[in-house]
Write a structure and sequence with these properties.
Catalyzes the complex heterocyclic radical-mediated conversion of 6-carboxy-5,6,7,8-tetrahydropterin (CPH4) to 7-carboxy-7-deazaguanine (CDG), a step common to the biosynthetic pathways of all 7-deazapurine-containing compounds. Its EC number is 4.3.99.3. It is an enzyme of class 4 (lyase). The structure is a single chain. By secondary structure, the chain is an alpha/beta fold. The chain has a single domain, classed as Alpha-Beta Barrel (TIM Barrel). It is built from six helices and nine strands. Strand 7, helix 4 and strand 8 form a beta-alpha-beta unit.
């Protein structure tokens, strides 16, 4: 990467774009709604069950002008979900400002492990034990999405729920490879603890991106 490109990436004017596509949001509070997904490369959180490990190495994904990405969004959608990888590894200020100037709602899905940036209509925080969220991200959360891979994750979910604000919606989502066992446990848990809701990866059941 030449110095000029690196400078643009550092400012968020370019982003290492892995993929972009128009689809149906499959998870969390906006399940079932149409959205344009922007998947940004780069992540060092290291979840062993991650289903997009190809996103981890940012160098594999070409720096792309945020203006070009926004031009693509405008053809399809009124809502964007920026995900990764870990999108907050990069400054989100430029692209979200441009999206909102074009009357496009901005959503993010993040571990919160990097400094907060961007202007968001919806901030989905999904903490991971391997690299915990920064304190500044918790009060921004509109949605807390906890992935349940084993039974100890319920205690972790409660620990994280204690850190977010009263406005934040709480979701438990079974890790896909253990969905049968963990979904049954989550159903029982939510019935006993109704402050939580269940999130399923419905896009995988629908066989869409």
């Amino acid at each position: 990467m030449d110095k000029n490109t690196k400078d643009l990436v550092d400012k968020g004017i370019m982003l290492p774009l892995m993929e972009e596509f128009y689809t149906i949001q499959g998870e969390g509070a906006h399940t079932g709604t149409a959205a344009y997904f922007i998947r940004v490369g780069g992540c060092d959180v290291g979840c062993h069950w991650c289903d997009v490990k190809e996103s981890w190495n940012a160098e594999l994904h070409p720096p792309t002008l945020a203006d070009t990405i926004v031009d693509n969004v405008k053809k399809y959608a009124e809502t964007v979900v920026i995900t990764g990888g870990e999108p907050l590894m990069w400054s989100m200020d430029y692209i979200t400002d441009l999206l909102q100037k074009n009357n496009i709602r901005t959503h993010i899905e993040t571990s919160g492990a990097y400094s907060f940036s961007g202007k968001w209509n919806w901030f989905c925080l999904s903490p991971k034990k391997t690299k915990m969220p920064l304190a500044e991200c918790y009060p921004e959360a509109d949605e807390l999405k906890m992935i349940i891979h084993n039974t100890s994750d319920f205690a972790f979910a409660e620990q994280e729920a204690a850190k977010v604000g009263a406005k934040c919606q709480l979701y438990l989502q079974p890790e896909w490879s253990k969905k049968e066992k963990m979904t049954a446990l989550i159903v029982d848990y939510v019935m006993k603890n109704p402050k939580w809701k269940i999130s399923l990866q419905t896009h995988k059941y629908l066989n869409i991106p």
